[in-house]
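Intended use. Records like the one below are meant for learning the mapping from a protein sequence to its folded structure. Do not use them to infer anything beyond what is encoded.
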Amino acid sequence: MGKMRWLMAGVTILGGGVHGVLAATAGAAEPTLEVGRYMSLAELFEKGGSLMYVLAALSVIALALVIYCFIVMRAEAIVSRVFRRDLVAKINSGAWDDVRTACQYRPSPLAEIALAALDSLQAGGGKTDPSLLKEIIESEGSRQAATIQNEPQYILDVAVIAPMVGLLGTVFGMIQAFNVVALDLAKAKPMLLAAGVSEALITTAGGLIIGIPAMAFYAFFRGRANQLVGLLESAGHEVLTAFMRASQR
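Structure written out for the chain above:
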């Protein structure tokens, strides 16, 4: 009875040792999954595919357009206070040659409006119909206002095109990922499919990263354009009044 008890204990110990060895062997043989890590910008660009170059070009274009709008859409570039005061003073004095020289020296939307009115006034020998003069100034003012409001339009185009290019890259990437799984059923693992889909979504993220700031800048410059048009209308009315007074002398 004592021997049987010792034999059972030995078998139990031996079984536990064998089980431990098998578990250790299985653990060593099972591949460990690499913990997810953040990819660098270069890796993201490489995995995004060829359309990432298109998105990079769009980002450069958007940046250039934003800088251009910051330079062009300024109050001093549209309706300079110094030029406005000097222009009205020259019109009131009737110095038409000085008015033309000042407009040509400081080209701006206000200068274009003044030149259009001056051409009409000089064509009539210094006298013109006030209603005709008003129509000419309003027509030229509307054209200049439309030009100002169209300045940010290209930023809006980039904001719309960039996400669409990113979505196109995602569609191409998902087609490629599903084709890999469909052509080789032995590799049809969720891990492989998820990796392919995650890489395909890189272009969509890139397109949104470009499109969202571009849309925000478009909204900002659209509001600024409305303010500049209001300033131009006020200055145009002042120029119209000065021309009417000068033509009635």
